[in-house]
Design goal:
DUF4248 domain-containing protein, 5% strand, DUF4248, mainly alpha, two-stranded antiparallel sheet, single chain
């Protein structure tokens, strides 16, 4: 049995890819909406992401931004 199968790696993700990891049971569009809502409604998370260069229209999330999201939301 490989215990690394569910191991989450901090790396560059597309926003859609990360959103789908957090919400695998919904379509991609809905997963993105949910992730956006979580970010916007969590002001400390949003402020820290913006300080790291995050903009709502960004398609890619840097490893630092992914680590920040995981810090606030937990691993997907």
């Amino acid at each position: 049995m490989n215990h690394n199968e569910n191991y989450f790696i901090i790396r560059t993700y597309t926003k859609a890819e990360l959103a789908h990891l957090y919400n695998p049971n919904v379509c991609l569009k809905v997963a993105l909406q949910i992730l956006r809502r979580w970010i916007v409604c969590n002001l400390p998370l949003l402020n820290e992401l913006e300080h790291e260069g995050y903009r709502a229209r960004n398609r890619l999330l840097s490893p630092k931004q992914v680590a920040t999201i995981v810090h606030y939301l937990g691993e997907p």
